[in-house]
Amino acid sequence: MLETYSVEMQGIVKQFGSVTANDHVDFKAKAGEIHALLGENGAGKSTMMCMLSGVYRPTSGEIYIHGEKVKIRSPKDAMKLGIGMVFQNFRLVQTLTAAENIILGEKTSFWRGPGWMKKKQEEIEAIATRFGLTFPVDRPIWQLSVGEQQRVEIVKTLYRGADLIILDEPTSVLTPGEADQLFETLAQLKAEGKTVIITTHKLKEVMAISDSISIMRKGKLTHTMEKSETNERELARLMVGKELTAQKPLASRPKGKPLLIVDQLDVYADHGRKALNQMEFQVHEGEIVGVAGVAGNGQKELAEVLTGLRSWHKGSITFNGSPLKNASVRGAIEARIAHVPENRMKSGLAGSLGIVDNLLFKSYRKRSRYGFLRSRANRSWSQSLVEQFDVRTPGLDTPVRQLSGGNQQKLLFAREVDQDPLFMVAVHPTQGLDVGATEGVHRLLTEMRGQGKSILLISEDLDEVMQLSDRILVIYNGRMVGELARGEATREQIGLYMAGVRDEGDAEEEKVI
Amino acid sequence: MDIFVQIVVAAISSGTPLLFATLGGILIERSGIIQLGAEGLMLMGAVIACMTYLNTGNLALALMAACAISAVLGVVHAFMCVTLRANQIVSGLALTLFGTGLSAYLGKSITGQPVAGAVPKVNLNFLENVPVIGGIFAHLDILTWFSFILVIVLHLYIHRTSWGLHLRAIGDNPPTADVMGIRVQTFRYGYIVIGSMLIGLAGADLLMVYSPTWIEGMTAGRGWIAVALIIFARWNPIRALFCAYFFGALDTIGFRIQLIGSEIPSYFLKMIPYIVTILVLMFLGWRNRNKPSGSPESLGIPYIREQRF
To answer: Best of B30, B158, B162, B168 to disrupt the A interface by mutation (most A CBs within 10 Å)?
Structure first.
C-alpha cells in the first residue's frame, strides 16, 4: 500500500529576479509527525514554507495536500486547505487584543457586542488550555511577552482549523524554559494527528523533538531521514557541507586590571520605561565578557549608553581610569571604544556609499587636510584594510549594500579595529552570517582578546556566548542577575537566570536588605 | 447660567463643521492614509452646496452635491495614495491647493448671495422649560442632530463590528490584515471616499448653517484645525465631539470679546483658535512624550503586497 503524505512538494523552484532561492526541491511530511527542516540562514527553508502558506508562489513545481494536487495562490487558499504558519516576525496587530487578533479574519456576525466577544473568548481559551498555551485573551498584544505572542499565533492557526502547522524558527525568541514549554505543545499537536513542520538551524532542538529531518543547503534539499538514523555530528556535517572543526577552548589569560567600571547606572528607554536599573558590572583588560539574556531586557540600551548614543540619568561609567562623557559618541570614539552595532546596515554602514567612505566614518578628522579629505592617501589606506581583513568586493567604490553580510561585517570590523580600540561593544556580531563568516568574526574577536583588548559581547546565541566569553553576565529586567565563569556555566543555569530566577542565597540577601 | 448656555450653543454651532471634518478624517486616517486635503474638500463642498441651493432651492440636493464633489476628489486622493503609492502628504496638499483655487473661481458669481434658513430646525418644544438642557437642545438644526447620531454610529462601528475591527487592523498592520483575508486596498479606497464625503459635508454645513453666504476662502483654516483635532481626539469619534466643541467655543469667545468692544485688535482675537492649536499640540506632545501617540501605526505608509519581508 502506498503511504500518503499530508503534504508533498515536488520539483519546487522559486526565483527572485535572478536569484534562485529554491532549486528543484522535493519535500514530504506525514500526518502525526514533527518534521524538522534544517539548514543555515539563507538555505531556503523559509522560502519553501512561505510557498506552502501562500505568501509566495512557486516559479514551477507542484504541491499535493493529502494526495491531491492543489494551487495555493494566497494565504486564504492555504487556510482553506488547513495550512497555518507561525512566522518568525509575528503577524499580530499590536493595538488589538489577543482575542481580536485571533478572530480578525472572521466574516460572520457583523455586530459584536460584549456578549458575542465573551463567547469567542471562551472558545479561544478552551483551545488554548487544551494545548497548554495560556495567555490573557483580553489584553492588547503590545502588553504581552514575546513567548505569549507566539502562543497567540499558534492558537490563531488552531482556531482557524489548521491541521498542518508550520513554525518558522520558533525558538529564536524564547528562553530555554519557554522553548521546553513549546516543545510540549508540539508533542501534543502531534498526538492529535496534526502535521507539524518547524524550520530551524539549531541541532539540539532537532534532536530533541523531531521525528523526521530534512536538510537544506544552498536552496536544495539534500537529505531526508528519520531522527533515529542519525546524530548531531552527522547533521552538522550535512548542513554545513563540511566537517566542523572541533572548537578549541580559548587559552586562559591572567585577569588584567579593570578597564570599564559601570556603577549604579539608571537608563531610560524611548518611552520612559526604565531600561537599566542600578546596573553594575566591570570589564577587565584582555577579557571577553558575554552578556546573555532574552531580547528586550536592556541589552540595546546598555550598548547605546557605552557607545555614547544614549544618556544615563544616575550612576557613573569609568573607562580606562577616567569618567566617560555622558551621551557623546565622539567622546566614546576618542576614549577608544569601538562599536559593532546590532543592525549593521542601519547604524553601522551607509549602504549606498562605497568602501572608502564607510571606512572613513570614524577617522575622517585625521584623514583630511585643511578640511578636505585626502582622497588618494585614503584610497590606498582603504585598499590595505580591504586586503588585511579579506573583504571580498568588486571595487573600492561598490555600494556596500551589494556586499554579502559576511563581507559587510568584515568591513565594519576593519573600520573599528583600525581605530586601535581598547574596548569593543559587539552586539549580535554574527547575526545572519553563514558558518564560515561566523568563524571569521569569532577569530577576529579572539585575536583582539589576545592583544589584551576587551570585548563586551552581547548576543542572543547562547552557544556563541558560552564559547567565546571568559565571563558570562546574564541580564534580566535591566540588571545583571547572574555571573558565571567560563568553566562553571551550563545552559540550564544561564536559562534560569534569563528567566529571572535568582539564586536562593540572593533572594535571602534581598530580604535582609 | 444664561451666558453658559449661550456659549455652549455657539460652540456647538461653530464646532459642528469641525466635527464633520474630524470624523471624516478619523475614518481616513484609521485606514492608514494621511488626509491633508480637508481644507480644499471643505471649500469645494461649500461652494458646490451653495451653487446647487441657489439654483434649485433644494437642501437635500445641495448636500448630496457637496458629498458627490468631495467623493470625486476622494477617489483622486485614493488613486494617488493607494494605487500609485504616491506621497500622501503631497497628494493631500495638492487637493487643498486645487480646492482653494477652483472654489474661488466657481464661487465668483455667487459671492455674497445669502442662503439663510436653508436648514430646518428641530423644535423640541417640550424641552423649552427644562433649564440648561432646554436652552441647548430645543432648537438645533437637523445637521447638528445628524452629527450627534454620526458620532455614536461611528463609535459603535469602529469598536463593536467586524468591519470596524478590519478598519483598525488595516491602519495598524496591513500585512497581517492581508494574511487574514482582508482586502486592504479595497477598504482603503472605501474609507477615503466615505471620509472625504463627510469632509465635503462639513463644508456644506459651514456654509448653510454657520455663515450662510459664500465668501472666497471662507473656511479660514478650519480644515487644518480638523487635521489637528484628529490628533487631539486620538482617532476616537467621541473625543472628537468634545474637541470640536472646545475649538468651536474658542472661536465664539474671540467673536464675543470683539462685540463687547474690547481694545484688543480683532486680528488678534481671530488668532485665538490657531494659537491654542499650537499650545495644545505642544502640551500634548510634552505630556505624551513617553507614550506611543495612539496613531494608527502604518499611517502614511503605502502597502505593497508582493514586497519581501
So the answer is: B162
